[in-house]
Design goal:
Number of strands: 10
Distance between the termini: 33 Å
Radius of gyration: 19 Å
Mean pLDDT: 96
Order of helices and strands: HEHEHEHEHEHHEHHEHEHEHHE
Number of helices: 13
Largest sheet: 6 strands, mixed
Helix content: 40-55%
Bound molecules: pyridoxal-5'-phosphate
Shape: globular
Strand order of the largest sheet: 1-2-10-7-8-9
Structural class: alpha/beta
Length: about 300
């Protein structure tokens, strides 16, 4: 293909690896290595770069001038689509769940400042966002567009995330990834070497449905599922974009000890979970664990 966004936009790939020394882990002979995908690009970071870049390339390749996508009012995906569109000169439309609230929150304010047109959709209609009944009127209203699903997790996105394990030049036992839609996990697991396992951490309460979603995403992307992953659902801290004092304390402590402020919606919950599972013996002593830092603190 003639379009290589990563080369054009000064993207940092492969993303760097960084060892962190956490006493409770070192005591158990567990080596923890961060895969710093948060450093890939300042405005389209982490798994948002990995998932969006092949879609932007596809949109450009088919001559589309507009990206349209869906998201909640605090969606990192909405933010990243706005930035990516502006970088490559595509118009962007964000269909936001629920009603407009002004002043705009920082996510939507960022999106508008990066040229995104926002439209709001009531929650009932939004639930059917994949259907022709919802998409057809949008096409009538906005003309032709390249559709990126909510969270950006289509087959192109999932296949793109397969590249993560191949960028890691040392042997490891376990790779950990936070989960929203599960698209990143679906791809990362499919790219693993033989003996390694993937562990997803649900950022949502009641994340059991994610198992089926990840299987569906793998079937769509690869025609089959892989049996080298599972999802841990105990570390949601009250639900999506909810936090508790214990989590805030953990984020502050981690920053103090390691100089990295963890993104709190996804990444901090995973890191808390990894360390807790190591303490409990749920991650085997002596393991090498990779933690994918899927995005920066906003
Ligand atoms: C969007 C996002 C996720 C969720 O990724 P999925 O592929 O939807 O599971 C995880 N971490 C961060 C930092 C994100 O912004």
């Amino acid at each position: 293909m003639g379009i290589d966004l990563a080369a054009d936009l000064g993207v940092r790939l492969p993303s760097p690896l960084e060892v962190v020394e956490v006493e409770a882990l070192t005591e158990r002979g567990i080596r923890l290595v961060l895969k710093r995908d948060d450093l890939i690009h300042p405005d389209v970071p982490g798994n948002k770069w990995r998932k969006l870049s092949p879609n932007v390339e596809a949109a450009l390749a088919c001559g589309s001038r507009t990206l349209l996508t869906f998201g909640g009012a605090y969606s990192n995906h909405i933010r990243a689509v706005a930035a990516a569109g502006q970088l490559v000169g595509l118009r962007t439309i964000g269909v936001i769940r629920g009603e407009e609230h002004t002043p705009l929150n920082p996510t939507l304010d960022f999106a508008v400042k990066h040229g995104m047109r926002l439209v709001y959709m009531d929650r009932d209609t939004y639930r059917a966002k994949g259907s022709d009944e919802v998409i057809a009127p949008l096409r009538r209203k906005f003309g032709d567009f390249y559709l990126v699903p909510e969270g950006g997790s289509n087959s192109l996105a999932v296949r793109s995330c397969m590249a993560v394990p191949g960028e890691i030049q040392e042997p490891f036992d376990l790779i950990c990834v936070p989960c929203g839609t599960g698209g990143t996990l679906a791809g990362v697991a499919a790219g693993l070497p033989d003996r390694a396992q993937a562990l997803g951490f649900s950022a949502l309460k009641g994340g059991d449905f994610l198992d089926e979603d990840v299987r569906d995403l793998q079937v769509q992307a690869f025609g089959r599922t892989t049996d080298n992953w599972r999802i841990e659902t105990a570390y949601h801290f009250g639900g999506f974009a909810k936090r508790k004092p214990e989590l805030v304390e953990f984020i502050d402590g981690f920053e103090r000890d390691h100089g990295l402020r963890l993104e709190w919606v996804y990444v901090a919950k995973m890191m808390f979970g990894i360390i807790d599972m190591c303490r409990r013996g749920a991650i085997a002593p002596g393991s090498t664990v990779i933690a994918v830092i899927t995005g920066p603190d906003a």
